[in-house]
Amino acid sequence: MFRSVASGCFRWGHSSRRMVSTFYEMFPKSFPGGEPSFNVDQSQLRKEYRVLQSQFHPDMVAGNGDGADMDSSVVNKAYHVLKEPLSRSQYMIKINKGIDLTEDGQKLEVGPSILMEVIEINERLADDSISNDEIARIKQENDDRMDAIVNKLRDCFEQEDYSTAVELTMELKYWTNLSNTIKNI
């Protein structure tokens, strides 16, 4: 069972009462030693998540009441944060530098050329005459762009270059939003 005891700290397990301070510690096979890492084996993380859900999901843990609900929701949140490159990067920056890039008040600028490009692409996507081929091309370009940023982020975190990681994470947020727009077309 997880019990929130402080910001970012949780009690782990029904009997052991071991404390964990980050989501990484909840997935010891994916992140040995609980060390924060941008690199993740998605398959291993998914396997560990399924095992944890089988232990903590309220439907699987009869009679544990609200505690099981909370445990399951913490497992879900941890998994979804660590699964996606954007949220994983935001989380790593938060736990390593104390900068919360998910807060609305945390407005960090990206370059004007990036903003203009995003605006232009959104305008093209909003055009009723856009073809499926054009949408597919824009999607592929955006996927390639996001992959390149993720690779740069991987290098930044390995080198502990958090200032560049913050900039890249803000940029990735724009391209991720564009990706979500494309999915909804």
Helix-strand blueprint:
Layout: E1 3-6, E2 9-12, E3 18-20, H1 42-56, H2 65-83, H3 85-97, H4 112-126, H5 132-158, H6 162-183
Antiparallel strand pairs: 1-2, 2-3
Helix pairs in contact: 1-2, 2-3, 3-6, 4-6, 5-6
Description:
This protein is mainly alpha-helical. The protein has two domains: 3-83, Orthogonal Bundle (Helix Hairpins), CATH 1.10.287.110; 112-183, HscB, C-terminal domain (Monooxygenase, Up-down Bundle). It has helices at residues 42-56, 65-83, 85-97, 112-126, 132-158, 162-183, and strands spanning 3-6, 9-12, 18-20. Helix 2 (65-83) packs across helix 3 (85-97) and helix 5 (132-158) packs antiparallel against helix 6 (162-183). The radius of gyration is 19 Å and the shape is globular. The termini are far apart.
Biggest sheet overview:
3 strands, antiparallel
Query: What is the total number of structural domains?
Result: 2
CATH superfamily of the largest domain: DnaJ domain
Could you estimate the helical fraction of the residues in percent?
Answer: 55-70%
The CATH architecture classification of the largest domain is Orthogonal Bundle
- Classify the secondary structure makeup into a structural class: mainly alpha
Radius of gyration, in Å, reads 19 Å
Helical segment count: 6
Q: What is the number of E strands?
A: 3
Q: Uncertain runs with pLDDT below 50, 5 residues or more? A: 1-7
Tell me, what's the shape?
globular
Instruction: Work out the strand percent.
Output: 5-15%
Mean pLDDT: 86
**Strand neighbour order, sheet with most strands:** 1-2-3
CATH third-tier fold name of the largest domain: Helix Hairpins
